[in-house]
Design goal:
Elements (H helix, E strand, L loop, with lengths): L5 E7 L2 H11 L4 E8 L9 E2 L7 H10 L2 E6 L2 H5 L2 H7 L4 E2 L7 H4 L1 H10 L7 E4 L2 H11 L6 E5 L8 E4 L2 H12 L10 E5 L4 E10 L3 E9 L2 E3 L3 E4 L4 E4 L6 H21 L5 E11 L2 E8 L7 H4 L7 H8 L17 E9 L15 H5 L4 E5 L2 E3 L5 E3 L3 E9 L2 H12 L7 E2 L7
Parallel strand pairs: 1-2, 1-4, 2-3, 4-5
Antiparallel strand pairs: 6-9, 7-8, 7-9, 10-11, 10-15, 11-14, 12-13, 14-17, 15-16, 17-21, 17-22, 18-21, 19-20
Helix pairs in contact: 7-8
Bound molecules: adenosine monophosphate and glycine.
C-alpha cells in the first residue's frame, strides 16, 4: 500500500505505549520508530526521545526533523489538550481524536448529553454545577439503601468515581468534589444510577464515519484479590471476553457506537482514532458506563498480542479520510491472552522507587509470552529499575483462558523483584 517505509512517533510512556510500539515494530513498512518519552522496555525497539508533548511546537519540530509520517498518541491527556489538532494543522498525520471529539472522555456531562440525544442505553443520570441541586436530586431520585454513583465531570486519572452506599456518603462525595478535590475536573458533578452486572471494554478504530471493531477485554481495577481495595489504573486484563457474543457486540455497535459516531460527524467534530466503550452487561441489556478516546491500559497488552493484521497499515487507513475503514477486515489470533500487572508495593498510594528488577529477559524469552514495561528505567549500571506505580504487564497466550493464565504466571515466576506485587486471581 505504501511504497517506502515510514517513520513513526508514539507519545506516552506506559505499558499501553510499549504494546503499541511492539505491534508497530513488527508491521511491514515500518521505518524508524520513536517514542516520547518512552521507558526502558521501549528502548529495545524504539528510540526514546525527551520531547515534551505539552510543547506541541517541539513535537512538530521533531516530526519535521525526523521525517515522521505518523504520530500515535497513547494517553488521554494530550488528546484532551488538543495535540492531534496541532499536529494536523501542521500537516502531520496523527492517530487520535481532535480536542473537541476527545470531550467524549474529558467531559462526562458532554458524553451523557450526546448519549441522551442519540438514545444510547445509559444509567439514569444528571449533571450539576452546585452542591444543593445535586443533593436534592439524590434525595428525590434515590431510595435510602440504593447505591448512588457520584462522578467528577473531567479527567481525574481514574479516581473521579465514587459509588456511595447511601445518601450520606453521596452528600459527602458531592461536597468533596465541589470543594475542589479534582480541581476544574469536579466543577461539574454527575449523579448516576448504579448499574449492576458484568463490565467489559470494547475497542473501535474510527475514521470519522466507520467504527472498526478492534477487540475487547476485561480489566481488573481494584488492587486486591477478589476485587477489593483501592481503585488502580488496572492490575490485569484478559481478551476476548466470553460474554461478548456476536449478538452483544452487534448491540454495542448499533445502539451505542454508531449513533454516537454519526452525531459527532453531524456536529462537525467527527471522531477519529481509538474509541473505548466501557459497558455494563445488565439484565436489561448492555448499557454505556463510559467512553474513553484511546486504547485501554492494560487491555492493549492483551488485544495487540492477538492482532495478526498489519497494525501500521490499519492506523494509516484510519487517518486517510471518512469511510476509509469501511471494507477493512481484521485477522485475529483465535487464542486467549491474559496480562498480569506487576506494581510497586504501596501502589496506588506511596511507593518506593529505584529497586532493581531481574529476570525480565528470561520471562520474555518464553514462547507466547510478552513482557510490556510501564514504570521502568535503567540505572547507572544499565540494569532495569522500577520507577513507577504500575511497572510491568506480563502477557501470556493460550488456547483458552486457563493455559494463557498459566503461561503468564509462569513467566512472572522468572521475574525477581522484591518490591513487586501482583494479583494472583487474574482470569479466574
Ligand atoms: P468511569 O470513569 O465513568 O469509567 O467509571 C469508572 C468505573 O466506575 C467503571 O468502570 C465502573 O466500574 C464504575 N462505574 C461508573 N459509572 C457507573 C455506574 N453508573 N454504575 C455502576 N458502576 C459505575
Ligand atoms: N483499563 C482502563 C482504562 O484504560 O481506562
Amino acid at each position: 500500500m505504501y511504497a517506502s517505509t515510514m517513520n513513526v512517533l508514539v507519545i506516552g510512556s506506559g505499558g499501553r505505549e510499549h504494546a503499541l510500539c511492539w505491534a508497530l515494530s513488527k508491521s511491514g513498512g515500518m521505518g524508524d520508530l520513536f517514542c516520547a518519552p518512552g521507558n526502558a522496555g521501549m528502548e529495545e525497539i524504539a528510540r526514546c526521545v525527551q520531547v515534551d508533548w505539552k510543547n506541541a511546537d517541539a513535537i512538530i519540530g521533531f516530526c519535521r526533523d525526523h521525517d515522521i509520517g505518523l504520530v500515535v498518541i497513547g494517553p488521554e491527556a494530550p488528546l484532551a489538550e488538543g495535540l492531534s489538532d496541532a499536529l494536523r494543522s501542521a500537516g502531520l498525520r496523527a492517530v487520535g481524536p481532535s480536542k473537541e471529539a476527545a470531550r467524549l472522555e474529558s467531559s462526562k456531562a458532554f458524553m451523557r448529553e450526546i448519549c441522551e440525544e442519540t438514545k444510547v442505553p445509559s444509567p439514569r443520570n444528571a449533571s450539576f454545577k452546585e452542591s444543593k441541586q445535586a443533593k436534592s436530586y439524590v434525595e428525590a431520585n434515590f431510595q435510602e439503601g440504593e447505591k448512588i454513583v457520584v462522578k467528577a465531570d473531567g479527567l481525574a486519572a481514574g479516581k473521579g468515581v465514587v459509588i456511595a452506599e447511601n445518601h450520606g456518603e453521596a452528600y459527602e462525595a458531592i461536597d468533596e468534589m465541589f470543594d475542589g478535590k479534582f480541581g476544574e475536573a469536579s466543577a461539574c458533578v454527575l449523579i448516576e444510577e448504579c448499574l449492576e452486572g458484568e463490565e467489559a471494554s470494547l475497542f473501535y478504530l474510527c475514521d470519522g464515519e466507520v467504527a472498526l471493531a478492534f477487540g475487547n477485554g476485561r480489566d481488573y481495577k481494584r488492587i486486591g484479590e477478589g476485587n477489593v481495595g483501592a481503585n488502580t489504573g488496572g492490575m490485569g486484563a484478559y481478551s476476548p471476553v466470553g460474554e461478548l457474543t456476536e449478538e452483544v457486540c452487534a448491540q454495542v455497535e448499533e445502539k451505542i457506537v454508531n449513533p454516537v459516531l454519526r452525531s459527532m460527524a453531524a456536529r462537525g467534530t467527527p471522531f477519529t482514532g481509538f474509541l473505548y466503550a466501557g459497558v455494563m452487561l445488565t439484565p436489561d441489556g448492555v448499557k454505556l458506563l463510559e467512553f474513553n478516546v484511546r486504547m485501554g491500559d492494560p487491555e492493549t497488552q492483551v488485544v495487540l498480542p492477538r492482532l495478526r493484521s498489519n497494525f501500521l497499515e490499519l492506523l494509516l487507513t484510519s487517518c486517510s479520510g471518512a469511510g476509509a475503514l469501511r471494507d477493512v477486515s481484521l485477522e485475529w489470533d483465535p487464542r486467549n491472552c491474559i496480562t498480569v500487572v506487576m506494581a510497586s508495593q504501596g501502589y496506588p498510594g506511596e511507593y518506593e522507587k529505584g529497586a532493581r528488577i531481574e529476570g525480565i529477559e528470561s520471562a520474555s524469552s518464553m514462547k507466547d509470552v510478552h513482557v510490556f514495561h510501564a514504570g521502568t528505567a535503567r540505572d547507572g549500571d544499565g540494569e532495569i529499575i522500577a520507577t513507577g506505580g504500575r511497572v510491568l504487564a506480563v502477557s501470556g497466550l493460550g488456547e483458552s483462558l486457563a493455559p494463557a493464565r498459566s503461561r503468564a504466571y509462569e513467566a512472572l515466576g522468572h521475574i525477581k523483584w522484591s518490591g513487586g506485587i501482583y494479583r494472583r486471581d487474574i482470569g479466574t
